[in-house]
Amino acid sequence: MPDKRKVCLSGSGLTKVFGFGRQKTVAVDHVDFSFYEGEVVSIVGESGSGKTTLAKMLLGLIGTTEGEVYFQGKKRDISTQKKRLEYWRNIQAIFQDPFSSYNIFHKIDAVLLDCINMRGGRKLPHAKKAEMMAHACSFVNLKFEELTNKYPFELSGGQQQRLMIARIFLLKPKILLADEPTSMIDACSRATILDMLMQLRDEIGMTIIFITHDIGLAYYVSDSVYIMERGRFVEHGSADDVILRPKGAYTKRLIDDVPKIYEEWDLSTVLPYKHGG
Amino acid sequence: MSNVMLEVKDLTTKYITRFQEDIYAVDHVSLKVEEGKTLGISGESGCGKSTLALSLMGYYFPPLHYTCGEIIIDGCNISGMDPDDVRKSILGTEISYIPQSAMNALNPTQKVIHFIEDVIQAHDPYQTKEEIYELARGCFESLGLPASVLQQYPVELSGGMKQRTVIATSVILFPKVLIADEPSSALDVTSQKMVIKMLKNLMENGFIKSLIFITHELPLLYNVADDIMVMYAGQIVEKGTAKEVVFDPLHPYAKGLMGSIIVPEEGLRECKLTAIPGVPPNLKNPPFGCRFAERCRYARPECTAFSVGMRDLERGRAYRCILSEKELRDAYRRGGQ
Predict the structure, then answer these.
(1) Nearest-CA distance from B20 to chain A in Å?
(2) Does the distance separating the beta carbons of A48 and B269 come in below 8 Å?
(3) Cα dihedral: B123, B125, B128, B129 (round 10)
(4) Does A150 map to a domain?
(5) What ipTM describes this predicted complex?
(6) In A, residues 27-46, which contact B (CB 8 Å cutoff)?
(7) Within a domain: B279
(8) Which domain holds residue A194?
(9) What is the CATH number of the domain that holds A243?
């Protein structure tokens, strides 16, 4: 029943072109999509297929060359800084590289306090804030006592990424855009984190957009999957349809390339080498 | 009986922090790699996988310090050697290493060929540039890389190409053992497959004699490695062939890890991933007895009362738990219902 669900974020003819003349690169090429409320969507593609550019456009971090983004049925307006902040209260992101996601001069406490303040908790007593921070940390399997008064670079990559998710836990946005969220996390805590994100979605009806090259992950978490090749969506549909019964040649190749444990992993189908990327 | 390329007995290494605390990141690790075999090492982040890799190479620069144990590479014991000597005479020729962030291993201001010249001249200063170029070209071509890469700067290469260039450079002196530390975790599936294929080719083409592959991605490890070791908090908790460890894990931690595998195959969405609750212990003062006890579903009071050794089963299978094989299997069967 696709009509019953409310569209949360949609786009039509979204395009991004970098450079001009000879160096013109079309990173995202007229993509149309509609993500529904409370849905988990995955955008899957190789590196260089324009996934991250699309994410940045959705976040409003870079401008669009062509096309429009619609947020909750209305045209997105981020023309002024105030409107932009309001938009960011609704959409938050986790990026692939946690090392460059933090301000290295701010302690971890400050990172989390910022989130509490942004949700209108500026006037709360300090003990309450500390409790909220500890709760958020324990939600992502971190110990707040070990983190407090430390700088982000003192943590491992996995811990930093989990701290990112603790931020989301405090912020409770409408849309979470997760750009390769678990690429730096080991398999064991990945399961925990995915469960947490799902739990978070059930609690506050958050829409999660996963941007990933891990097809197993996309299959496990998402309701619908979009496959991206060279800036275009080449296939989309429910996760079962796309991953188990792929139609396009590109999707098939992508799925073949994932190491599997129950089926033979065929190494002979590898391309000699790839240009660009 | 094939040749043992690398043998490690009871290796223990520690980090000394600036507060003079000792952190035993590798604790009594023993392993053996035979000629033509690939050993896989897995475990969660912070369990000492990368430290083990550095220790195996004898790369003891502060804060990492050697404590005890033996490292024997093809019959030559390097355990007591000075790290500077190790760097000159062992690294590259006997044992070689692909770092975790191989993307950053190349010098951005040098062409690839100049980087390779540096590597070779560090070991043999009398080789001429022409000789090196011929050697590098032959090496790259037999590994399926175009020779034009040699004249390019690292920024001109894609991530997968950079990674494969680093691999080709690391084997250019024909080391006996190659340690690959997460060589493909930053790449997408297509480039990952190319890198893995190349690593497999290395052994077939006689560039290396054995491979140690470190990764936390179990489906990948299962496809690459002959034997798998699972590490937890600096110790080895399970050892066995790839098939045994993936499909029939004995140690509760290994069992938990196998429950978190994600592969795009039918039936994945129905079975729920099992996550292991809690966090690994702090290695500054690890708990006495079994280090996994506080996160273990099957823990008993005895677990933390005695120190737990490896239990050796037949054919090199071993695990570190106080429960016997039968008790563990019974517990899993009950837990699965």
Answers:
(1) 18
(2) no
(3) 70
(4) no
(5) 0.74
(6) 46
(7) yes
(8) 7-100+174-269
(9) 3.40.50.300
